[in-house]
Each structure stands twice: as structure tokens, then as C-alpha cells.
């Protein structure tokens, strides 16, 4: 059991989408900015980096030759995502944050991060896919809602009305 002085951990999952950056900003605005001097949660931001072999998939002969190139690209993308997340935190004056990149399937990575950090809440953005796209791509938020051993908050970016 965590002591009273130990903060609860909130894990926020991010990828390179406006939906996940929106979810991070929304979370900071609602759970961290109002309590700037003493936030209720310790913040852990996690990015699930796909494995190069997953990205290449069944590319057939010669796929092994591009693995190192894909790996470098994925590392650059991950670094850029974490840099953007860090900038958002700095802009909101949230400094006590742990940033992690974990290779693997996003849903599994988020659920494992919850276990590893003993998180009491997991925040993920919603991509707002339609039924067909969700059926094909799978939904990380749906996976997390069913498998994470903590409260899961799915932040949806409001649709802009024209």
C-alpha cells in the first residue's frame, strides 16, 4: 500500500497524432496546472514505438536490408514525439515528468506501463475512427479500457463545428 506522502501515478500514452497531444494538454490543464505547486499525480508519459519488423511486415526478400534504416527512422520519430510532449509540459510549467519509449504494440505497452509504475490512472487519446477503420486497425483505447488494471480515461478531441 502506498504511503500518504507517495503520489499516485498517472500514465499518459502518446503517439504522433494531434489526438494524443490534445489528450496530454487536456490532462495537464485539468490535473496538473490547477495544482501547480503540488499536483496530485506523478506524471509518466509513454510512447509505444513499433518494432521495425512490425512496420516492414511481410515485405518479403530484402526486408532485412531496410531494418536498420527503419529502426533509425522509428528512433527519430520517437525522439520527436517525446520532445513535443516535453515542450507541452514545459509550456504548462509541469516539470516533474518521466518520459519513456517502449518498443511494442501500443495497447500492451500502455498496460505494461501501468503495471510497472503502479499507476492508478491511464490516459489515452481517442482517434475517433469509424467502425470499419477501428475494426481493421484495432483501437488502443478500447484495448486499454479492457486490459489495464486501473482507471482508464479516454480523451476525445471535440469535433469543430463549421
TrEMBL record:
The lineage of its organism: Eukaryota, Viridiplantae, Streptophyta, Embryophyta, Tracheophyta. Gene3D superfamilies: HUPs. Residues 10-156 form the UspA domain. CDD domains: USP_At3g01520-like. PANTHER family: ADENINE NUCLEOTIDE ALPHA HYDROLASES-LIKE SUPERFAMILY PROTEIN (PTHR46553). This is Universal stress protein A. Pfam families: Usp.
Amino acid at each position: 500500500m502506498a504511503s500518504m506522502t507517495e503520489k499516485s501515478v498517472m500514465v499518459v500514452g502518446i503517439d504522433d497524432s494531434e489526438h494524443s497531444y490534445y489528450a496530454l494538454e487536456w490532462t495537464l490543464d485539468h490535473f496538473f496546472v490547477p495544482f501547480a505547486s503540488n499536483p496530485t499525480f506523478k506524471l509518466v508519459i509513454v510512447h509505444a514505438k513499433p518494432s521495425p519488423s512490425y512496420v516492414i511486415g511481410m515485405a518479403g526478400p530484402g526486408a532485412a536490408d531496410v531494418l536498420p534504416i527503419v529502426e533509425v527512422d522509428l528512433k527519430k520519430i520517437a525522439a520527436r514525439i517525446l520532445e513535443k510532449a516535453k515542450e507541452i509540459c514545459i509550456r504548462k510549467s509541469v516539470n516533474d515528468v518521466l518520459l519513456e519509449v517502449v518498443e511494442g504494440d501500443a495497447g500492451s505497452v500502455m498496460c505494461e506501463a501501468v503495471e510497472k509504475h503502479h499507476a492508478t490512472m491511464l490516459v489515452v487519446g481517442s482517434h475517433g475512427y469509424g467502425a470499419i477503420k477501428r475494426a481493421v486497425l484495432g483501437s488502443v483505447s478500447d484495448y486499454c479500457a479492457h486490459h489495464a488494471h486501473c482507471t482508464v480515461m479516454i480523451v476525445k478531441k471535440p469535433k469543430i463545428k463549421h
